[in-house]
Amino acid sequence: MKTVKNSESYTYLDKDTNFRGTIKTSKLVLEGSMQGDVHASDAIHLKKGSVLRGDIKAKNISFDEGSVYNGKLLVGPSRNGS
Questions:
Q1: Are 71 and 56 in contact (CB under 8 A)?
Q2: How far apart are the two ends of the chain, measured CA to CA in Å?
Q3: How many Å apart are CA 44 and CA 41, to the nearest integer?
Q4: Positive or negative: CA dihedral 77, 47, 17, 10
Q5: I need a labelling partner for 54 at 20 to 30 A (CA). Which of 5, 21, 29, 82 fits?
Q6: Distance CA 12, CA 32 (A)
Q7: How far is residue 43 from each of residues 1, 21, 77, measured CA to CA in Å?
Q8: How far apart are alpha carbons 22 and 2 in whole angstroms?
Q9: How would you classify the pairing of strands 18-30 and 2-13?
Q10: Do 14 and 29 touch, CB atoms closer than 8 A?
Q11: How many CB atoms are located within 10 Å of the residue 78 CB?
Q12: Are 35 and 17 in contact (CB under 8 A)?
């Protein structure tokens, strides 16, 4: 398992990616496959054909038709208002 921390930036996993681990970032765009949790301070976008198995915590999330998601979902501002 890997941990990727890009708290102030944009993280992109392309269609050839098969990532296992945790991602902490500002924004995530997923086109490939991922198994693990995602914490995004801003937004997550799952593109058509992407697969995410894990928990999501983000202010905003969007799913393209044809994306697959399985896990817990917490959307909205954090309790501290950020």
A1: yes
A2: 28
A3: 9
A4: negative
A5: 82
A6: 9
A7: 23, 18, 11
A8: 6
A9: parallel
A10: no
A11: 12
A12: no
Q: What is the Cα gyration radius of the chain?
A: 11
Tell me the per-residue pLDDT of 23-82, one tens digit each, with 9 for 90 and over: 999 999 999 999 999 999 999 999 999 999 999 999 999 999 999 999 999 998 876 654
Sequence-ordered list of residues with C-beta below 8 angstroms from that of 40, at least 6 positions apart, any chain: 23, 24, 25, 26, 27, 28, 56, 57, 58, 59
Which residue in this structure is represented by tokens 């995410």?
52
What would the two tokens of residue 7 be? 């708290």
Residue found by looking up tokens 């086109």 in the block: 31
Separation between Cα atoms, residue 76 and residue 49, nearest integer Å: 25
Q: Which two tokens stand for residue 53?
A: 């198995």
